[in-house]
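Feature request disguised as a bug: please show the residue count (298) next to Phosphonopyruvate hydrolase in the output. Example input:
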Amino acid sequence: MAKRAATDALRMKLTMTAHASTKPAIAMAAHNPLAAKLAAEAGGFDAIWASGFELSAANAVPDASIISPDLHLQNTRSMGEVQDLPIIADLDTGFGNAINLAYAVKKYESAGVAAIVIEDKTFPKDSSLRPGGRQLLVPVEEFQGKVAAAKAMCSMLVIARTEAFIAGLGQDEALERGLAYEKAGADAILIHSKQSTPDEILSFCRAWTGKVPLVVVPTSYPQLSFSDIARLTDGKVGLLICGNHAIRAAVAGMRRAFRKIVNDGGIAGVEEEVASVSEIFELQGDSDMRELERKYLR
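Example output, currently without the count:
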């Protein structure tokens, strides 16, 4: 029931008319069920972003369509099993063409996913923020087919992501693509940028005339707060995604602990900096298992 209520709230945010929303939903990235559970535990987030970038990083491979669809699906399903926030699945380019995507979306819907994001780059993709990356976009009509196929095959929210700014094609191309994807049935348009200032994103949002809400990922321009984004875009943004902060926090924390252990020649120095064993037991649901043991083990 809690997950259904959270999913309905997210759907309401992303199906309002573009100018109606004044407080965007916030999604936190996760790369495994533990990260998803911690994000839900933090409070204040409306959804979990099942990030392809984070899952790739967690497996120490590039974010370039290397992770298998089965691994991605299983990880996404597992995130939904351990906490009640709705899952937004990052499907990159949809694992191929419109036919590949049509088959994939059924599996994600069966896994309990609330929304998917697909992007208009060629397959295999390259990470949007990678310096010198291969940022090639498919024709508009081809991506419209992907959006239409996804909408026809599932009842999940379908968010169309245009990489026009990432590919250096400018605002006019970004707007044209966004409107075309809305026409194909997209429930929201994700507009992405790798600029260190929010200028091109804010300009796009102000120029947006579509009726569906926008989605932004402020990784490259962190100086803009959530309330700033809502205010400066006239409420056109319905969803903000914290795109990769779980894996970055995990990497930073582990590196600090590992270096300290090596430098200290022992583990005593990190005990105050790391989670206690009892905290880990709690996150694992140990008490629930013990209750089952009491009831059913003879």
